[in-house]
Protein: 4-hydroxy-tetrahydrodipicolinate reductase
Organism: Methanocaldococcus vulcanius
Amino acid sequence: MIKVAITGALGRMGSNIIKTINQQDDMKVVAAFEVPNHPKKGEDVGKLIGIGEIGVPLSTSDELDAVLKETKPDVLVDFTIASACVENVKIASKNGVKLVIGTTGFTEEQKAEIEKAIKENNVSAVISQNFAIGVNIFFKTLEFLAKKLGDYDIEIVEMHHRHKKDAPSGTALRAAEIIKANRGIESVFVYGRQGMTGERKKEEIGIHALRGGDVVGDHTVIFAGDGERIELTHRASSRQAFVNGVILAIRFIAEKENGIYNTFDVLGLNEIKF
Ligand SMILES: NC(=O)C1=CN([C@@H]2O[C@H](COP(=O)(O)OP(=O)(O)OC[C@H]3O[C@@H](n4cnc5c(N)ncnc54)[C@H](OP(=O)(O)O)[C@@H]3O)[C@@H](O)[C@H]2O)C=CC1
Ligand SMILES: O=C(O)C1=N[C@H](C(=O)O)C[C@H](O)C1
């Protein structure tokens, strides 16, 4: 049985992950954390998310070290915010707990802090900006398109719900990195455009973030040439798409002793070459 702890337990992702873990035979939630001073601290997490009692009281992140020592999870799943995630990863790694990290919006310094904590403590982690299986196929398709159409004008547009705190999305940034690595010419990322921008340069990859309503997550990459364009779009209509990938990642990382992995590793997509 894989024992799982969740940080961001009552959030949009955290609550759905707990619901889905509760339906699996090979894993169970042993600890769940929210922000310090949370008004529901101590209440049963299952009841709080509407699935009935699961015997796990809501803890707060200031208790993370103590509760991890007491409940001894194999894996901590983090869907919080970047600054909280960095601290959670440091504490979990020191306790020898493996990680599945879905949080986005990290600075380069925060990414480095996370990698350092994981490596220094010899734990294993899956880090992915998007756990949806379809998005990972979308990323793979971008490798192909960037190789074939690297000199086309490339623009990325993403749209998310009004509550999203970071922009552009982690997925849009990952898409840009994949294109940059595969297009065969220099790239410069341009975030939005305004004013007298001058003529578009070949090396630009435009990245544009839209926010509104309850949009779960839409990403489009446009390859615009002379007289034609290709638009590749992924639309998530339910967070279950991400949650299903998280469940696969928990099983994957439970078998790994150390190392940092991504969803291409989890889904076996690294072998596909164009
Ligand atoms: N990789 C992927 O596939 C996906 C990634 N994401 C990313 O996951 C993250 C969370 O998204 P989402 O679930 O929509 O956001 P929510 O705001 O719904 O959930 C985040 C939760 O974390 C809580 N939280 C904040 N700080 C801490 C802390 N120190 N310890 C414990 N809990 C904390 C928040 O509490 P409070 O509200 O009180 O601040 C909130 O309940 C975002 O970065 C998002 O981009 C989202 C979907 C898919
Ligand atoms: O905050 C969200 O909701 C999402 N965040 C991730 C990101 O930033 O790419 C993944 C998904 O698009 C939903």
User: Anything to note?
Assistant: The pocket of NDP (ligand 1) is lined by residues 7-8, 10-14, 33-35, 61, 79-81, 84, 102-105, 128-131, 166, 170, 242 (CB under 6 Å). The first helix runs from residue 12 to 21. The CA atoms of residues 18 and 54 lie 10 Å apart.
